């Protein structure tokens, strides 16, 4: 197509009728019709169709006089022959005269059409540009750069590398993607690119390239879709010598008209030594091509087998107060560091995985091979998992590449946990467990105590102190509750009353004591960290409480989000909402039960010796004759003794019942004995001791094998087979 025809096409596209209002000031709109890739000393020809477009304002289009202006060049030389051959543009709209390498003269006779001034010549090093000198004319003056960047060399290609890949010490693997970018359109057409490993490297390019092998490639910008595969082959010199450290990639003829780039993917290497003994460290290559600077690139790292375990960000948590989402990543250091047949298990220390629904989590993460067991608080990554879609099966683990597995999960901490929160990854793939810190923890409150000492079997015993301090303002939320009770509810403690005060800060509260609980409701959140003091606890104990120390606990919705749901109904003072203490702060040894209250027991006298005879109501105490309400019996060769008779005579003894009729409890010298009708178990201070005969309750009297009566009460006994009598002896203490 001749220049006049080309100009006609461009001019036609520029002549667009618009409804834009007429501009009131005389001026022109000047612009290039396209942007070219500019290389120093590489000529721009008329075939490339670069034009400066000059469009007059609507006011000036009616001016019939010829308009003359000049175009000057900077770092650019106009080519004389291009303008001698084409002295004017289409329909004599504009006449262009070459005055010198740096100046053109333009005469426009028809301003109703866009004037097209061809730009042809040679750009020089620097910033090639043309300047419109519109003085004494109707055009707008201005400078117009031919390129957006400084022209510095004639290099048409450039090479860069993507992220360096990890290769195991056995040497097999792939190097980083290498991108060859055109600075000028079609610069890669019919080119060869060589990629060379240094002679000092323990690696060579994979042997499959000896006879040539296809590379996976991706064309971008102007080369998108123009090339999908290329052939890579070992370099061979004129004498036929093959170099397995040098790879040659040949590009076919490609005409795009717009510059682009090609990404070379998955270039494989292997160990030069068949034993696979490759030194660790960076792997570099040199990339060469015509019209390209020799470029050294880091494309891989040789590393030992292994796995990295990371978290994207270490979060901050408040104990008992909500959760944060984390992202965990397990990545192979080198290919084949993991075995797909060996699962990876994730557990958590000083926290828990906050998953509302096990089913929903497992469904949402099924494609990743992830599942959670909420009871165990454990997440499993099944490396052998395969996804099936549209009849196609895709494994999540690929054997010939470095695998990375990422997943997100919420983590939280309980009220007593102090952190840091650590996730542990365990697997037969690992020599030892891997750990990563995922969160730091700040306690919501700090609790201090002063213990109370009580006696069993007494009412309204007063003492003790519990101090709850916020670590920051607003730690205890409005309309949430703090609940305090005995953590060992099986024993007979009953909190009847307590003094509850705000002793620091400005938090506002209401409080009550109900069903053995101290309940504190936050009615206004604090603006400054506050302190709540609970003192003078009024505690009643029954006679079932043994000597020792006992824990209380601080729970409720104000302490932990886990304490939000109520289960069951309150039936009596010992039956509380246990879910309010699902996540509680333990007050260790808060109550101490001292020496048992013996002053009001029914018999404080200490007998030294009693003699009972089988089948007889008559018995003696220290030789004094007495009559019993139940006689010793012999059953199945076992002597059964009425336990109350013996216990009463030895003093410092009390009786009680647990869980209603059928169980008898005996107290003596700090010991607690329990016998249940029909059971052969004696429970002594919480320890189950098997007996050789079962406990029996006959006519309201409890009969126990003689041996266990003596052992339980801490006294000695003898059996006289001739008289069928048993003698119990207790020596004075």
What composes the largest sheet? 10 strands, mixed
Number of E strands: 59
What's the architecture of the largest domain in CATH terms?
Sandwich
In terms of structural class, how would the helical and strand content be classed? mainly beta
Strand order of the largest sheet: 11-14-20-17-18-19-15-22-23-12
The backbone outline, from C-alpha atoms, is elongated
Low-confidence stretches: 7-25, 567-577, 598-605
**Termini, distance in Å?**
129 Å
The mean pLDDT is 86
Rg over CA atoms, rounded to whole Å, is: 48 Å
- What percentage of residues falls in helices of 4 or more residues? under 10%
How many individual domains?
5
- Given the structure, what is the number of helices? 5
CATH topology of the largest domain: Immunoglobulin-like
Write the layout of secondary structure elements.
Blueprint: H1 3-14, E1 28-32, E2 51-56, E3 67-74, E4 76-78, H2 80-85, E5 94-100, E6 103-108, E7 115-118, E8 121-123, E9 129-133, E10 142-145, E11 157-161, E12 165-168, E13 173-174, E14 178-182, E15 192-196, E16 203-205, E17 213-221, E18 229-236, E19 242-250, E20 260-265, E21 268-271, E22 281-289, E23 292-303, E24 307-311, E25 315-318, E26 323-332, E27 344-349, E28 352-353, H3 358-364, E29 370-373, E30 378-381, E31 386-389, E32 392-395, E33 404-412, E34 421-426, E35 434-442, E36 445-450, E37 452-454, E38 461-470, E39 481-486, E40 493-504, E41 508-514, E42 517-524, E43 531-541, E44 548-555, E45 585-593, E46 609-613, E47 618-621, E48 624-627, E49 633-635, E50 638-642, H4 643-649, E51 653-656, E52 663-668, E53 671-676, E54 681-684, E55 687-690, E56 696-698, E57 701-705, H5 706-713, E58 716-720, E59 725-729
